[in-house]
Amino acid sequence: AFKMTPNVVFVLGGPGAGKGTQxxxxxxxxxxxxxxxxxxxxxxxxxxxxxxxELIETYIKEGKIVxxxxxxxLLERAIEESGKKNxxxxxxxxxxxxxxxxxxxxxxxxxxxxxxxFDCPLEICTARILKRGATSGRVDDxxxxxxxxxxxxxTETKPIIEHYAKQNLVKTIDATRPAEEVYKEVESLFRKGAx
Length: 195
Ligand code: UP5
Ligand code: MG
Hints:
- The protein is α/β, with parallel strands linked by helices and 195 residues long.
- Helices cover 55% and strands 15% of the residues.
- It is built from eight helices and five strands; from the N terminus they run βαβαααβαβααβα.
- The chain has helices spanning 19-30, 37-46, 53-61, 68-82, 96-105, 122-136, 143-166, 179-191, and strands at residues 7-13, 33-36, 86-90, 111-119, 170-174.
- Strands 2-3-1-4-5 form a five-stranded parallel beta sheet, with helices on both faces.
- Helix 1 crosses helix 8 (179-191) and helix 2 (37-46) packs across helix 4.
- The longest helix has 24 residues, at 143-166.
- It is globular and about 40 Å long.
- The two termini are 24 Å apart.
- It binds P1-(adenosine-5'-P5-(uridine-5')pentaphosphate and magnesium ion.
- Magnesium ion binds at residues 19-20, 36, 38, 91.
- P1-(adenosine-5'-P5-(uridine-5')pentaphosphate binds next to helix 1, helix 2, helix 3, helix 6 and helix 8.
């Protein structure tokens, strides 16, 4: 169990929308802990002898969403181990399975503040990811994987954003501008206490 009820902001948006970039800035200014579900999965994949290493690798390459039991337990452990209060959960929940799994084991134990949605069209995201792909070493930063990631985002993740929008929990940010400008809008949201 958690020592105190964690505050959680879900951070969603397509591949390359700038979730990680903006989360870093929020961490610097507002003292949140950044938990990227993708980073946690990559870390788990890289652990020698990890039970889930191969599965995670395959899912990431194919742009598919890893079963929620794995992702959710990584998130829960990271929250617990941090001992902190405020969390940016970046790149999760991405599909109905993620949402159901979270609602089953986590939703009652945390305070969901809002969903930060970085809205960015496919063409801009593609350019950003392919540029990053030159140096990132990520197995999914190539045009084949990227097409699959976008497809998963449109068919599976968009409905989750819609689900939260119906509950008036979504704060939408135009993520097409330079990172500093995007952050200005993000900052004012967090200054206001957003939730
Ligand atoms: N950049 C950022 N902002 C910019 C701006 N405003 N203007 C110009 N350039 C900008 O940014 C991407 C690149 O763009 C960087 O080079 C950056 O400098 C530049 P970043 O901040 O990294 O964007 P982000 O939205 O975080 O992109 P990312 O590639 O991380 O998004 P994904 O959602 O695709 O990746 P994630 O790591 O979350 O997931 C990867 C895979 O893991 C998924 O496809 C899935 O297979 C698996 N996964 C699960 O199965 N379950 C989960 O819960 C989470 C992930
Ligand atoms: Mg990211």
